[in-house]
Amino acid sequence: MPQDYRVPHLTTALKGPLLELEAHLLNHSHAIEAWFRQEFRDTPAPFYASVDLRNAGYKLAPVDTNLFPAGFNNLHPDLRPLAVQAAQHAITQACPVTDGVLIIPENHTRNTFYLENLYTLKDIIESAGYEVRIGSINPEVTEAQTIDLPSGNSLVLEPLAREGNRVGVTGFFPCAVLLNNDLSAGRPAILEGIEQVLMPPLDLGWSSRYKTHHFQHYANVAKRLAELVDIDPWLITPESMQCGEVDFKNPDSLERLATKVNEVLAKTGDYYHEHDIDCKPFVIVKSDSGTYGMAIMSVQSADDILKLNRKQRNKMSFAKEGLTVDKMLVQEGVYTFETVDEAVAEPVVYMIHNHVIGGFYRIHTGKTATDNLNSPGMHFEPMSFQLSGVLPDQTQGPDAEPNRFYAYGVIARLALLAAAYEIKHSKTQNR
Amino acid sequence: MPQDYRVPHLTTALKGPLLELEAHLLNHSHAIEAWFRQEFRDTPAPFYASVDLRNAGYKLAPVDTNLFPAGFNNLHPDLRPLAVQAAQHAITQACPVTDGVLIIPENHTRNTFYLENLYTLKDIIESAGYEVRIGSINPEVTEAQTIDLPSGNSLVLEPLAREGNRVGVTGFFPCAVLLNNDLSAGRPAILEGIEQVLMPPLDLGWSSRYKTHHFQHYANVAKRLAELVDIDPWLITPESMQCGEVDFKNPDSLERLATKVNEVLAKTGDYYHEHDIDCKPFVIVKSDSGTYGMAIMSVQSADDILKLNRKQRNKMSFAKEGLTVDKMLVQEGVYTFETVDEAVAEPVVYMIHNHVIGGFYRIHTGKTATDNLNSPGMHFEPMSFQLSGVLPDQTQGPDAEPNRFYAYGVIARLALLAAAYEIKHSKTQNR
């Protein structure tokens, strides 16, 4: 049994023998790692990403890929050196000569969870040896303001300024600009046509990006990985269909959505039946362009769509920052069979550059295995290193517990690779 | 108090408040990290190194820098992802297109400690997604042989072959060749003039390298770092003098050595006196070109040299592989005030590329604070992550225990930078 340390060896919630798929990926780790290395050499990874996974045991798949991850503060502090090392390489690759990084954050100035994340992100990049300052595009930030955080740390937000073709804050216009704002509110004019290196590029903001594109790229790379290790691509790919524009107040439009839902349910049901999977298919309906936990629902039949009440229809019509939802994605629901303290949990894997740098469980005590867990009431449990024993000198023997987290790192990086293809594709289009 | 995660947060043997020097380095971590980043950009680090440190409390200094480190198996398994990530970047930088790495090991085929190290090193590079095979220059290795290791793993040694200007093993002549053989026995003809990338270069083997050169480079970079953070360079620099050729059987030669010993003792004594350091100066006399724990002695007066008996003189005359010692290095002895389970201990820090990837304590129950610990009877204790608490979600508050290990990572990387200058210098000379 190969021990694979390519991704950190973290404790996962599942106990017991390795599931077949996880074992299969572990057994093919060398081929997988060589493939990723070559893929990311040709198609560089975005600066960072977090990927929500669902592990149904018989299937392990990404359900959301976030290119502007928050939540760095939820990672275990022991993993910090991995993040620092990866950040140094990501910045060196994007902008070899820079000595500074400007971060453009989300506009929330009172969400302390978000601001703690921002502090951690800043600290990671500073620890890599860069000067970091934060330039906000929030119109309420008109002068430098210091925000004290519950952790005891503090953060300075400064208003973002533009000088010619560069953006920055007073006296600081570095070559590297890191977006930690998903641009749900649209492409800010101040960022158009800047000559600095913007990571990730403007086109990857939710104002321009569609999840269906991501999942199309994902299906392509998943198919290639599946061929490499000889598995059915279904085992790692969620069936995804774009539904086009949906007006939740228009019965015809809802009818069309219900038809798509039926299609995905039928396809999934057929597969379950063929392969003796004793589960009831379900479907996730979500905005095709960023949800931030809103405009998302789990349905088990087309009727669930047709019987939506007014409140539910309203909820589905508005996503973050008041953006009206237009296009919808209908995606096969993947059960999460992981629990932490009896509450349902889904793993979220964090990456910087092409490296897995940690993960945590999103846990919801009030939800079930078919629900979206990214909703109010959730909490986080950082994954820590799997302790190999009490004594520090205990080395891992050949019968050591295999790295369950490895499979999660593979699928998360596969989603990262899909995002890399999105970036490549957007660059080709803009030429 | 900045929390610095640039190097892993590991448990060190010292308890109690941070010593002044450690605290000073921690407080200047951002400046230090930016400086290292720029230095290593201009002067790339060797592929790997391990550095022996001594922490006397008032002084923290490197005493040995090994460019062909063994002992990777002594690092804590939790730290493996750091090593894998760093190896991937080191290989990408040296040889962007290679898919394979050939390792040339030491000639011991029966030293299982060494072979376990070799297995771990191979595993690190394989985990980074490269094919790895081992080509031995040991004349006894005439065909591929599989060696079973105590850990349950096994290793295949193959005879190194040369085809034109490339070396390799049957069907495997990759662009990247990694030396894990310190070349004490001389420069192997088979490696001269190869067109592959040899890491580190042939000139850095002990057959061509002198410790005094390393410590001269070290003194230079230490002086610059000391200026940057405004400390006395003495605090991080061991006084080192080359003694030239010493024939331990010739009284005149010993007399000359005794004079140098007196010089270093007097200089150190003066400093102790000026700064109220209540310790007795001592000196380490060692071979100027690799010792492997042999040909090294700790002396407290010139008399110790003049009164050497025949057995001691013989011991000092022969180093590894029967090489006659000629040039000697006389170096200020640095007390080690660290103990593990009441035995004296010195930290050994491992680096790949320009990243600290772990460390362990070398411990010797039969030695004192002035002795060389790299000798029979020593054992190793891997450093593990400093557990921040029992609960995995406990985040590090601003009053969290500071990263004591940070200072060790700084001094070790300073020695690594000195080695990088050695490589640069040897390349310039060979042009």
Automatic annotation (TrEMBL), chains A, B:
<dbReference type="InterPro" id="IPR011718">
    <property type="entry name" value="GshA"/>
</dbReference>
<dbReference type="Pfam" id="PF08886">
    <property type="entry name" value="GshA"/>
</dbReference>
<dbReference type="GO" id="GO:0016874">
    <property type="term" value="F:ligase activity"/>
</dbReference>
<protein>
    <submittedName>
        <fullName>Glutamate/cysteine ligase</fullName>
    </submittedName>
</protein>
<dbReference type="InterPro" id="IPR042520">
    <property type="entry name" value="GshA_N"/>
</dbReference>
<keyword id="KW-0436">Ligase</keyword>
